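Hey L., structure's done. Input below.
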Amino acid sequence: MSEIVTAGANCMCSFGTAPAPLKVTSQTKILADGKPAATIQDCQGGANVGPFGMCTSLANPAVASATAAAMGVLTPQPCMPVPAGTWIPTHPKLIVNGKPCLTSDCKMMCAYAGSVSITYPGQIKTSAN
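Output:
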């Protein structure tokens, strides 16, 4: 069962070293458990999705450069998410202010080959079945 994601949720990148909070900016009127419900449009690096600690993806030019300088030893660099599109909706008929709702089983791709997923939806009372 998937839950509706709200302000205060956490997400994680498959190439990151730490979770990041999710900020809801796409709408403020529809609430779940008293918090603004997120939509798939809450996907901007920095504005909605914060850094995931250090990036370990060799598809990231900064990581590739630092790793090459270290003679092939993987050298993580500070993460700055670069989303490659919006969150992929799993319940596209669940609409919030004309946009598909973000649910706990949604994924988003990073331009540096990472897959971003929700680790904590911000609330656990409102499900999306």
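The domain at 1-53+80-124 is CATH 2.60.200 (Tumour Suppressor Smad4). The first helix runs from residue 61 to 69.

-- N.
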